[in-house]
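Repro:
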Amino acid sequence: MALAYDGAIQRLIDAFASLPGIGPKGAQRIAFYMLSASDEEAQQLIDAITEVKQKVRFCDICGNVCETSPCPVCVDPRRDHSVICVVEEPKDVMSIERTREYRGLYHVLGGAINPMANVGPADLNIPKLLDRLKTDEVKEVILALDPNIEGEATTTYLSRLLGPLGIKVTKLASGLPVGSDLEYADEITLGRALAGRREA
């Protein structure tokens, strides 16, 4: 049987290990770092976690994270209110914003259809999206979901759901990442790159 640390340090390791993307070794490394950190540094982490739990919420309109609802994007009069970009998670909003190419609104689903994890359409923020589309203002919905099986299933579901509404439904182009080699591209990505080719 593997040896475990005693008491508080093991509880801290277990707490860090329960976070996504942190394995047992990473959790142990962080826990021991916190053990040697100054009281001030430890308190900053405690305060940051407490503050985010107290202040941060989800926008009542789009589902993005914010401290005041509606969020700054939803109330910005400079944004194009005729286009809504649908994403899976709030972090996807920041990814698109960093491109500085998009000036419309967003809608965060809060996940993707995934039967293996018992996540169906009813578990996603789809009803609020449909409510937003009842206004004459929205002319296009961009489906910007992850290019994986769950994202594709959700894109297909939403395309069929939104199709009859008479609103233009588009999805992100997909292809080869800059700086990669063709030999490392999977067949689906390479096939999409060929299908979405344009004049040079």
